Amino acid sequence: MGETCFFIGHRDAPDSLLPTLTETVERHITEYGVAAFYVGGYGRFDALAAKAVQAAKKRHPAVTLTRLLPYHPYDRPVPIPEGFDGTFYPPGMERVPKRAAIVRANRYMVNNSGYLIAYVAHPSGGSREILDQALKRQRRGLIRVTNLTGWCSL
Prior knowledge:
- This protein is α/β, with parallel strands linked by helices.
- The protein has a single domain, classed as Rossmann fold, CATH 3.40.50.
- The protein has helices at about 20-30, 45-60, 100-110, 125-140, and strands at about 5-10, 35-40, 65-70, 85-90, 115-120, 145.
- Strands 4-3-2-1-5-6 form a 6-stranded parallel beta sheet, sandwiched between helices.
- The longest helix has 16 residues, at about 45-60.
- The model has no long low-confidence stretch (mean pLDDT about 90).
C-alpha cells in the first residue's frame, strides 16, 4: 500500500452520494492499494468524502486522511479536524494570491496523486477544470480518474 488519492467535487453534492462514495473508497483501498487520502474542506462533497474515508479507516487502520489547506496555516491557523490524521499545505503556495489558492492547491494534488475520485456533474466551476486537468494526465497514464457522475467534460 502507498498510493495517494485526492477528491474533487461540487459543493452541493447530495447526501445520497455517500453509499457510492463509501464503496468507491473501499475499492481504491482494496483493489488499487491507496493508503493516503487527501480532501479539501469546502462544500458537501468534501464532507462526504471525509466521512467515507473515516468509515474505511475503521476497517483499514493503515489508511490516512489528510485535510488539504489552500491557505498558509500561519495566515489561517487550522487545527487538525476530528477524524483526520493531519493537514497538508502544498509547497510553493506562499506567493499564490488568495483568490487563486484553492484552484492552485487542487492542481498540485492532481499533479501529485495517483488517483482522483470526482463528483463533477456539470460544466461550470473549478471542479470541472480540475477534472479536465486530471483527464489529460490520465491519457498519459499518470493518474486514474473515477468520476462518480459518469459525466466527462473532455
